[in-house]
Amino acid sequence: MKMRAGYLVAAMALAALSASAWGPKTQLCITSNALYLLSQEANIPLDRLEKEVRSGTMISAEDLVKRYPNLITQPVDAIGAEMGLLLKVRPVRIDPYFAYRLGVLGKMTAMASAPLRAANPAYRNAYYADVESRIEGVSMNSGARQVVDPRIHLPRVIADANAQNDVIQREYQAGTGFNGVAAMNLPNDASRSVRAVADVWFTVITGGAKPGNISERELQDFVLDAYRFYIGRKNPAELDAAAERLAAIAPLTTDMRVRIGDL
Questions:
Q1: How many Cβ atoms sit within 10 Å of the Cβ of residue 220?
Q2: Nearest to 226 by CA among 211, 247, 206, 197
Q3: Contact 149, 209 (CB under 8 A)
Q4: What is the distance between the alpha carbons of residues 215 and 233, in angstroms, rounded to a whole number?
Q5: 3-state secondary structure string, the chain?
Q6: Model confidence over 71-129: pLDDT tens digits?
């Protein structure tokens, strides 16, 4: 019964996740703009690892909900946990897998900062579909980068993002759709998400906050996921270099060696 209940909860979370926030093109546009801000304005050259960041942003809903099943109901906790882990394992020089995990963090933050996350699914999905078809022509405003505490900063961002939800829903219900407040607010709403992603990345990359209480199991899982990532890239030299870095995060146990061997 417990196993069946667990599968049911996971299935419900996955269904919610797949339709809960900005669409995939919008998420990529938001993280790409955040990457540009850090590269051009904060002198953090993430653009050399744009492919890996984008790959993290495109993580499947299934894999994301496995990693953080509380992302939908407790997004601040989920984002804070990922930030804490990345702060703990932050390398001197950003490597491909760390860039990938920044992409995952960016996707989580973009989702959490989207309007209408908890709205009526019919209006929410119509809104996100409309945004998908228009997002590439939207002008973004950046603001200055800041170190943020997710427990304090993100609830404000989420509240701001959802301030006009009732108005937008009424306009969709009345048939106005994307021709009213939704269209007028899109530059601000998208820019808010871009700034949120850029700021959580800035906090992690600069080490501007203290890592949380990260367990040995979490560190081991990070190392195993990194091995999975590098093995999939089929570059022995890159894998050897990564192995040396990863050994400093969590020494390989017998079980970890077996799992890496299976990979």
A1: 18
A2: 247
A3: yes
A4: 28
A5: CHHHHHHHHHHHHHHHHHCCCCCHHHHHHHHHHHHHHHHHCCCCCHHHHHHHHHHHHCCCHHHHHHHCCCCCCCHHHHHHHHHHHHHHHCCCCCCHHHHHHHHHHHHHHHHHCCCCCCCCHHHHHHHHHHHHHHHHHCCCCCCCCCCCCHHHHHHHHHHHHCCCHHHHHHHHHHCCHHHCHHHHHHHHHHHHHHHHHHHHHHHHHCCCCCCCCCCHHHHHHHHHHHHHHHHHHCCHHHHHHHHHHHHCCCCCCHHHHHHHHHC
A6: 989 999 999 999 999 999 999 899 999 999 999 999 999 999 999 998 999 999 999 99
How many Å is the Cα radius of gyration of the chain?
19
User: Does residue 28 contact residue 195 with C-beta atoms inside 8 Å?
Assistant: no
Round to whole Å and give the CA distance between 13 and 71. 9
Alpha-carbon distance 85 to 93, whole Å?
A: 16
Residue entry with tokens 């993280």 = 31
116 token code pair: 């209408």
Query: Under a CB-based contact definition with an 8 Å cutoff, are residues 35 and 55 in contact?
Result: no
Burial 73-88 (b: 16+ CB within 10 A, else e): eebbebbbbbbbbbbb
- Count Cα neighbours of 178 within 13 Å in the Cβ-side half-sphere: 14
The string of pLDDT tens digits covering residues 150-169 is 999 999 999 999 999 999 99
Tokens 């963090």 sit on residue: 105
